[in-house]
Amino acid sequence: MLRNRFYKAHIGNVCFPRVRLTGPRTPIHRLLNLAEKFEISNLWIKRDDLICFGFGGNKIRGLEFLVGDALAQGADTLITGASPLSNHVRAVAAVAARYGLKMVAVYWGNQSEDYSGNYKLVRMLGAQVFFTGSTVRTSVDREMEMLALKLKNSGSIPYVIPRGGASVLGVVGQFLAVREVLKQFATRSIKPDVVVLPVGSGGTIAGWLLGSAWYKAPWRVEGIAVSKPAPESKAEVMRLVRDTEVLLGIKSNLAEDAIIIHDHYIGPGYGIPSLAGSAAIQLTAIHEGVFLDPVYTGKAMAGLSGLRNVQRIKGNEGVLFLHTGGQPGLFVPGQFA
Ligand SMILES: *Cc1c(COP(=O)(O)O)cnc(C)c1O
Fold it and tell me: Among the atoms of ligand 1, which is closest to the Cα of residue 198?
């Protein structure tokens, strides 16, 4: 049984229960052909899609701390929720399987006929699945609380991971990714001037902003929104940064107007393919043999290309693109425009 296999990780002055699901580092390599296409002299990609557990992706970094916390509290069941396309729910279900925990997935909308992509994987991982029957996203939060209460009343110890996985403990995992990347560039003479990454719930960019400020990284961070308008995203990111500072006992002096999020690349909406996103997926596959995903990284790459076109990113700048995973979404019908 792996149930009690968490350890105490010291970060700053604080100690966190943590499990290890990632290796020591994910690869960084150049995208020489895309660099030529975009007329950028130095373009790298950080392959968090290759995190070696449960089809990888950025969510695994945060889950090391969330599941550590759940195990430390003696939980026997994980409850989380989101859209049926969710990478987060799939990642949680995989971790539950590994640690011998029961898994309950709550989705908004109605039971899908379509067993594909992440939803198929979640079923394969043995999760119990509920649909709220409402398209309102917050219906998931209510249902999760109700299920947790029911389980408590029947003697179980459930642990609820917030919808989409955006929580302060999750941000800590992203914060540490910055330290990892700084180490990887420590011995290289050329370093990135800008990091481009997708923004959904904002936990990932919050960790990158706080980590970059705290470890004095030489780059700025430019987020590409895939779901919410920039002002809404920025407010949420600021909140997550502040809460994480409190949790870690550190202070970064990051101001809200230092948060850069572009919302021109969302297309028709969250989880709906955009022409620019699909073109970016195609371009990256054809020129690099690297697969992006339709919900996040395709649109983020479209953003990188767009920012280069408008000279927001200069040709002589070093650019690091964060591949946050999500490729199971490529196998959902209709996820390619
Ligand atoms: C969740 C997710 C993101 C966005 O991360 P947030 O922390 O929600 O902003 C980006 N890419 C992929 C593949 C994801 O699953």
Answer: 10
